[in-house]
Amino acid sequence: MPGLMPIIIVVLAGLGLAIQPPTNAALARVSGSVWLAALVSFTVGTAALLIVWAFDRTPLSALRGAPWWAWLGGFYGAAFVAALAFAAPRLGIAAALSIAIASQLVAALTLDHFGLLQLPQQSVTLTKLAGIALVLIGVVVFRRG
């Protein structure tokens, strides 16, 4: 069961990611601002994380040794939330997420192959390239559908 728990957590997170763009798009539509919708999304998320962190009690000093680039994660998340709030109503959620997933896989393959950002190096294989090719084909199929 311990090997199954990370998979279950990622599946649940993936479900949330599929629901998040139309939720944020609704805020953007009502407010007229993608930026305000993203801000509300991050404010609610920050509040939830503050509650969880209050129970976790990891001290802020634990972040002292973080490399400079580790502080940019929130920027990427904010850009993603705003981009999907903008794109979802224009492309449809399936197409928008398939494009996002394809770009994430290409970036992930690059990060893994070169062992960037302190990740263990994992070589590119024909099987991995075939998998990404299938996802990219899926993006094209979604866009034409």
Automatic annotation (TrEMBL):
Where, by residue number, does the polypeptide cross the bilayer?
A: 35-56, 68-87, 93-111, 123-142
* Recorded coiled-coil stretches: none
Q: Which SUPFAM superfamilies match?
A: Multidrug resistance efflux transporter EmrE
**Keywords carried by this UniProt record:** Membrane, Transmembrane, Transmembrane helix
- Matching InterPro entries: EmrE-like (IPR037185), YdcZ (IPR006750)
- Record protein name field: Transporter family-2 protein
Which organism is this entry from? Sphingomonas endophytica
The record lists the lineage as: Bacteria, Pseudomonadati, Pseudomonadota, Alphaproteobacteria, Sphingomonadales
